[in-house]
Amino acid sequence: MPGSNVLSHMTHPRRLRSLSICVLLAACTNPAPGPSARPSDDATASRLRASFVDVERLAKTDDCVGCHRDVASHWASSVHAYASFDNPWYRLSVDAFRSERGAEESRFCAGCHDPLLLLSGEIDGPVQAENELAYVGVTCLVCHGAQSVTADGNASLRLAPTAALIPDPADATEIAAHREALTMTPLRTAALCGSCHRSFSGKEMGNQNHLQGIDDFGDWASSAYGGGVQDHLVSTGPATCQGCHMRTEAASEGELAGSRDGEVRSHRWAASHTALAAQLPDPTYANQARSTLQGAIIVDFGPVVAGSRRYLLPREAILQGAQTLRFDVVLENAEVGHRFPGGVRDLQDSWVEVTLRDASGRVLGVSERRRDDGNDVFVLRATVLDAAGRPERLHRVHRFAATAFDQTLGAHQSRTVRYAIELPEEPVAPLRLDARLLHRKHSPGFQALACEASRSERGTGFATGALARGKVAIDPCVEEPVTVIGSATAWLGEGAMLQSARGGAARPDVERLLSHSRALLGGPQEATHLAKPSLERAMRLASRAGATAMVAQVWLLRARLSAREGRADEAIDFLGQAQALAGYDPVFDRVRGDALAQVWRWAEALESYERVVDASPLDPVAWRNLARAYGSLGDDENAVRAAEAGLAFSPRDEALLRSRALGLSSLGLPDADEAMRQWLTHRTPDQQPALLSRCEQAYESCARDRQPIPDYTLIPPTKGFHASIDPR
Asked: To the nearest whole number, what is the mean pLDDT of the chain?
């Protein structure tokens, strides 16, 4: 199809030529713009529909180049431009899907990755290397034609069925009309991104159950970045997807979109896809991808246990020979507005590397990566099981049966990982601890499989096809770059000092103690008691320094600890202490409500949850808590109202669907049966506990992930071990 390559036609479009967007995409059962209060019919997984469509016009991008040279060049080096079959990693997954389940079920993927293949109907047949639409990806008009979106996911957007005028650059009236036509309300909202960066699978794919997939949008909406109320004090203000992933940069003279202020939004959408960025001829994209990751996660150390003694701060440890040394590494999501890693959390590869040296520089132990299943290192990822209870590590989505563990980090969340090593008889103190969080886009096993597939006749066909169309032939056999996201260093024993990789200055002791405490309080109940000594020490240090804000945070965390242990009145007293120092924040009502709900004091909890909803009306978690409180008090009518308000932003939330179904059933309303069906469709699979048990018994990684704090052993380095990986 001529003109499909954005860089192949750098001429100015003809005056008054129109872009036909003859497309109508049915988003959900609710055709109106805005959120939907209930999940749509799952007869097909994709929310994308078309009553009529000019696919050729939608696929062309050269119409935009004459006036938008910068934006066009950004897009050409982006994941959106390489979203389809010319992306070897995507092609590997979708080919496996189609071979085992058939082409029709692969519409689940096509709504977001291959919108034009789907609209043309060609996704239902074999997609060969000769097909022009297999190289198009997500074009300009897919986003700029968005008339309305919903919160359902799987491409839940509606495109405008009207034509868009190509303006005369010298005609201000035509330019204004063009801007208005192609910058509709959804374009600058997180909801537009969420229409694809939220996904689900279910029976329409041949699965037994509904399973939530990617949900960066939902994670963002419940975070402080999306206006949600988190369970501890954060200083983060609201931020949209565009604010982080489409940052402004200076516009060239050929970029008319920047004519107003000299800047233009980056259309590279830099995130964690460093593998793609490294192979595209756009060094700015590679730099943006790295910089987006670097520093996003804080790496630090928690308490150290030497022999039988526990030291809250690493530098205080007293070491002796022939004893077991245990220490905690703490990871804190400081800057990512959703879970990290985001996207397909079962596939991305972010792991912790730990090295212990003595004063002579000799390496005593490492968390060396030997196997792809991550048994030797802690990997930030979600573990998904197949129907036999086996971890599915190769992103064969059609085999997903249940989610086992999610070891990723939510916004402003912390996680603790524990390491142990047997010290030599006479350790040369002080010992040096180094910890780094490293990232590459794909796991080694998946990368090897993609490499093999790329060398097949089909793989080489698509590589040749990409080159013929002026695109890059992405080669998954190229070693993926590794990015150092965060690092920390600490010394243990006599003469010890403390240092952080961030500018050489150590984090304040109070911050270190608070971060470790938050990690424990956000984890399983079995580990929460370990936070008490850290909080008591943090209180003494913060009070001595007169750090009022830190003292308030300690009181809040002590309240969370008391709440989780069922001491509601004590928690409320601690919250009062925190509020007296910090002033009112909705988080106090959030924790107060949780404390009261823990001991079934629902009437009091309701008052707190109502104030949280008032403060964060778009937060599904706030509505979830409110609906549960109303339902527990027998106020079914208000429980249903609260549940439906939350479902408008999270239509497939199991807890909200349950509250609505039970409320409607108690009221005896006609919609009760359908509401009950929707809840049963979207609830946790019945077989999930059995699959978890099978995985625990058969796989070391599952057994470890089930622990309150994952426990790893440092081992002597193997021959050829390199303790450092240069960031690229």
From this structure: 86
